[in-house]
Design a protein that fits this description.
279 residues; four-stranded antiparallel sheet; 23% strand; binds adenosine-5'-triphosphate; binds magnesium ion
Length: 279
Amino acid sequence: MQPLRKTVGSVRPEKAEASALEVSGLTVRFGARTILDGINFDVRDGEFLCIVGSSGSGKTTLLRVLAGLARPAEGKVQFAGAEISGPSRDRAIIFQDYSKALLPWRTVRGNVALSLEARNVPASEQDAIVDELLGIIGLSRAKEQFPSQLSGGMQQRVQIARCLAQDPKLLLMDEPFGALDAMTRQSLQDEILQLVADKKIATVFITHDLEEAIYLGDRVIVLGGSPAGIMETMEIDLPRPRNQLTTREDGRFLAYRHRLFELLVQEHPPQAFEGKGQQ
Ligand SMILES: Nc1ncnc2c1ncn2[C@@H]1O[C@H](COP(=O)(O)OP(=O)(O)OP(=O)(O)O)[C@@H](O)[C@H]1O
Ligand SMILES: [Mg+2]
C-alpha cells in the first residue's frame, strides 16, 4: 500500500474554459416513471465534479447514461463534442463493488492487461504498461496475486489501474470507496486526486458522503426531488493541493458541509438517513 500523502492533487488545472462533457435537458424514464427530469450541467476539461443525492435519486442512472450504458428519453449528452451513443474506452467507469468488477481467475497483472487487450496493445508492450500502472497505484508487489488474495482497498486499486489502462479522458466513479474502511478510503481519495490531476482526466464522482464530495470536488451537484433534478450546484473554493487535516478543518469546508446537509435533510427527514453511513 502506498504511504498516505500529506498533500495531493497539486497539478489541477486552473478554471478550465472548455467543456469535456455537456448534459442538456436530460430526462430518463423507466416505463411510465420519470427518474431524472431536465438535468443540465457540464464537466470542464480536467474538472473533478462530485454528485450527491439521497438514495434512489437517480445517481447511478445518471452515471450509466454518461457511460453510454443507458439511453435518455429526452435531452442530449455530448462528450468531446460528439453525442454519446454507447460505451467508449474514452469514458471509464469504476464501480463500488470491486469484487464483481475483477475477474477472479486472472491475476492482478491479467486484470489490468484486460484493458490493454481491448485496445489491441501488442503483447510485447503490455508488461511495461502494466508495471508502470501498478507502480503508480502501489501494487507492484501484488502483480502475480489473484483478487481473492487481496484486501478490499487493493482490489479497488486494481480496478482503478485497469480503468487507467483504458487511457480514458473521462473517469466515472459510482461510490467507489463506499465499502472501504475510513483510513483506506482517505488514502484512495488522495491517490485518485493525484492520478486524475497528473493525467488531466475529467472526473464525475458519485458519493453519499458529503465530506468526501467537498474534499475531492471542484464543484458539487446536489440531486433531489421526485423526479430528480439539480437542487444546487456548489463551487468548492478550497485550495489545492488538498490535505486530509487542514482542508477538512477549513471554515469554508464546514460551511459547505452545513449547506449540503441542510439540503439533503430537507429532502429526507433524519430517520431516512439511518443506516446509510451518512456523516
Ligand atoms: N433498470 C431499472 N428499471 C426500473 N427502475 C430502475 C432501474 N434502475 C433503477 N431504477 C429506479 O430508478 C431510481 C433511481 O435508481 P438509482 O440506482 O439511479 O438511484 P441512486 O441514486 O443511485 O441510489 P443509491 O444511492 O441507493 O445507489 C430508483 O427508484 C430505482 O428503483
Ligand atoms: Mg447508486
